[in-house]
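TEACHING EXERCISE
Course module: macromolecular assemblies
Task: Read the component lines below, then compare them to the predicted structure of the full complex.
Student: A.B.
Group: 4
Components provided:
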Amino acid sequence: MLNIGVIGYGYWGPNLVRNFSELRGARVAAVADLDEAKLELVRRRYPATRTTNDWQELIQDPEIQAIAIATPVSTHFEFGMAALKAGKHLWLEKPMTETSLQARKLVDEAAKRNLVLFVDHTFIYTGAVRKMGEIMKGGKLGRVYYYDSTRVNLGLFQRDVSVISDLAVHDFSILDYLLGEFPNAVSASGTNHFPGTPANLAYITLFYASGTIAHVNVSWLAPVKVRQILVGGSKKMIIYDDLEPSEKIKVYDKGVSFTDDPQQIQEMRVGYRTGDMFAPKLVGAEALQVGGEHFVDCIAKGKTPETDGKLGLRVVELIEAATSSMRGKGETVYLQRQRKVS
Ligand SMILES: NC(=O)c1ccc[n+]([C@@H]2O[C@H](COP(=O)([O-])OP(=O)(O)OC[C@H]3O[C@@H](n4cnc5c(N)ncnc54)[C@H](O)[C@@H]3O)[C@@H](O)[C@H]2O)c1
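Instructor-supplied answer key:
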């Protein structure tokens, strides 16, 4: 039985505790939060779970083998490093850390100690993203021309992180998973409409050596909630609407073809293909349940999680690049890194 200690029982922590409590082979041994009212909630919902306002108590507990951290991003490095140094496997909420240097240090520490480092990029464990991966990795989409995401709604305004760290991280992790490629340049524009607060709106473009271009539009200042991704390939196109209750993914047999004949290209002889649309069946399990089972399995078998520290680090590198570009009003930031994601 894996004993898990959860630090942070605010908005996201309760989802972790609920899912971990239902896992076979694991239990939530203790929850830490600074807020006594939140701990009171834990005691009412989970009478067998210990509560404390001192996070270090969980780290020092020899009965606890894994720590999950769902506190503000500014605490992730300190808490995460302390957990690893105490020999605990680690579940870290997204984004992994505030800086890529911190993320790299956690990756190294976990590797040195042979500990599992899982970063909760939840979307990777959704039926929809899994299905998109299956379609794209199987070559059914053809060459990927573009990825276009709109992730907007009213709020929740965050005090400590920008809308890039809050919302665009989801697209950065999904792109990493779907394309298996790291961008070679990033350009971002955005703003904070309220002085002294982090950016609440951003438009980010990512350029890939393969020719794929990705655009991510994130905002906390939209009158309606939109969660929509379009992926256009040479053979098919996908629309993923996360707010659709059932048919979240639709695959369109639509596209264009240009002739090889230079003369005809000059004349813009474009062939348009408009075929069928189909909505594939998706695995319905809650992403956190799938991720939780994977975490426990990785610990039991000494495996590397799909959303490991290296993925977490790549996402933090993209947050840094986009933030730096945004400060330069969209100035292109070039990224030095192996293009293929290992
Ligand atoms: N994976 C996802 O889809 C997803 C969704 C939402 C949030 N998150 C992530 O989860 C993390 C937490 O976000 P949230 O929205 O739940 O924040 P929140 O502010 O609602 O909750 C944070 C909790 O941590 C507690 N806390 C703060 N400092 C503490 C300390 N020193 N010791 C113990 N407890 C402490 C606070 O009292 C609060 O209850 C963030 O990294 C966020 O990005 C992930």
